[in-house]
Design a protein that fits this description.
Order of helices and strands: EEEEHHEEHEHEEEHHEE
Distance between the termini: 40 Å
Number of helices: 6
Strand content: 25-35%
CATH architecture: 2-Layer Sandwich
Oligomer: single chain
Strand order of the largest sheet: 10-7-3-4-5-11
């Protein structure tokens, strides 16, 4: 197991993260019961990076952007509140998402999601996200996986349960992931970046449902920026349309 350059403080103490561990920030968008008529979607998404690269390619650049363009490295950042960004802010975010080598992913569903299984929508979306993480883990070959989940009074407990329930392995290494919960008020960089990943994914699905904008121009600029303008190995997006019980 490699050395540790990243330490995570949590309610039970301090976790020294091995350099070859995969750190995954998770956030949500929408509501799992699709009852919001203006935003009838639900999804999970975020970012992932090896611990040895966390400060160089994610935490450091993100805090630098906040310091230079958003009022300070310690301010809270929420993608939904960025209504009228300046050209400099747009350029900084563009450079961050297109030039830095971290994995970004999202799995979305909408109110048309046909779930014929006994599992909850939250569980099915969480499993799909874990499969996306496995795609990247096959390239990164981590020794551990640490999920940092954005705190949610509504579904936080379910997310911790689901992300903790499965083991990962490649035939030689086998381990259970660790799951930590972080409030946005703590300003954990990977959780804030996760928010900026999942927000355009949710808005992209919502726009399609309501027929906005012009059907001939259906890709949002922020969605294109996050998911399309980067090496395809660093991006994974999917929408689940339905789920059926596995045939015997």
């Amino acid at each position: 197991m490699g050395a540790s350059t990243l330490s995570l403080v949590h309610e039970k103490g301090v976790l020294n993260v091995p350099d070859d561990a995969l750190v995954v920030g998770i956030d949500e968008t929408g509501c799992e019961d699709y009852k919001d008529e203006k935003f009838p979607v639900f999804g999970l998404g975020g970012c992932a990076i090896l611990a040895r690269d966390y400060f160089r390619f994610l935490d450091g650049p993100w805090k630098d952007i906040k310091h230079r363009y958003f009022g300070g490295a310690d301010v809270q950042m929420h993608a939904s509140q960025l209504r009228h960004p300046t050209p400099d802010q747009i350029s900084a975010l563009e450079d961050f998402f297109t030039k830095l080598p971290f994995f970004r992913f999202a799995c979305m569903s909408a109110n048309s999601f046909d779930n014929e299984t006994a599992e909850t929508n939250i569980h099915l979306i969480a499993v799909s996200v874990m499969l996306q993480i496995c795609e990247f883990a096959a390239l990164a070959q981590p020794s551990q996986i640490i999920f940092i989940v954005e705190n949610s009074t509504r579904i936080g407990r379910d997310l911790v349960k689901h992300f903790s329930a499965y083991r990962y392995g490649n035939g030689e290494v086998d381990f259970a992931p660790q799951v930590l919960v972080a409030s946005k008020s703590v300003n954990v960089s990977c959780v804030e970046v996760a928010d900026f990943v999942i927000h355009p994914a949710g808005a992209q699905v919502r726009n399609r449902l309501v027929g906005f904008p012009d059907p001939m121009n259906i890709i949002r600029k922020d969605f294109d920026l996050v998911f399309h303008r980067v090496d395809r190995r660093l991006s994974s997006y999917q929408e689940i349309l339905g789920a059926k019980p596995k045939m015997a």
